[in-house]
Amino acid sequence: MEGDSTTINITETPKERKGKAPLLATPPASSSIKPVVQKAPKRGYKRGLAILDVVLRIAGIAAALGAAIAMASTEETLPFFTQFFQFKARYYDLPAFTFFVIANSITAAYLALSIPISIVCIVRPHLVAPRIILIFLDTVMVALTTAAAAGAASIVYLAHNGNSDANWPAICQQFNDFCQEVSGAVVASFLTVVVLMVLDVLSAFSL
């Protein structure tokens, strides 16, 4: 009959479904996108530490050189003397004071020679090798200067207070000017030790 119509259902196979792709791809969720942030090299603070390093080295030179000159120029002669003896106090009469002058002179010379290496760290703050060299040499100078300052400080203490057990009288009542100048030199040497220790810390932070 003409009114009757036949309906045919055509099902799509999986292969045909795969062939149909959307024209516009769905963008991925925003949570899955992780922006890549490039960190700028932190060279500004390293350059600032290198500049401070140079300033401290100049201050260390002044302290060490001042300590050596003050000790080496210290001399006092008492106004009274006998026919055979003249009472005089000089730094080279004591080996501890002689070592003090030599050690502080070496430290001052080292700090002066290390300034060019420190300037290299200002120009190229990312370099590691100069910092390692400075840390090693600064540590050696800390040990040398501390030994010299401690040895001289023990002699100064005996000069001020003496030692009754060893029957060593205090001589600073007679050689007052000598003791004051020597004490100032020892203080300047300990300031040099502090500067060297700060330089070690700065070099470690700059690595």
Describe the structure.
With 207 residues, the chain is mainly alpha-helical. A hairpin with a 4-residue loop joins strand 1 and strand 2. It is elongated, with a radius of gyration of 38 Å. The chain starts with 13 loop residues before the first helix and ends with a helix. The model has no long low-confidence stretch (mean pLDDT 81).
List keywords for this structure.
207 residues, mainly alpha, 5 helices, 2 strands
Q: State the low-pLDDT regions, or none.
A: none
Strand content: 5-15%
Task: Give the averaged pLDDT, no decimals.
Answer: 81
Morphology call: elongated
Spatial strand order of the main sheet: 1-2
Query: How does the major sheet shape up?
Result: 2 strands, antiparallel
Got a strand count? 2
Helical segment count: 5
Structural class: mainly alpha
> Terminal Cα separation, in Å?
97 Å
Order of helices and strands: HHEEHHH
Give Rg in angstroms.
38 Å
Q: Fraction of residues in helices?
A: 55-70%
What's this entry about, in short?
This protein has helices at 14-19, 44-72, 95-123, 129-161, 176-206, and strands at residues 75-81, 86-90. The protein has 207 residues and is mainly alpha-helical.
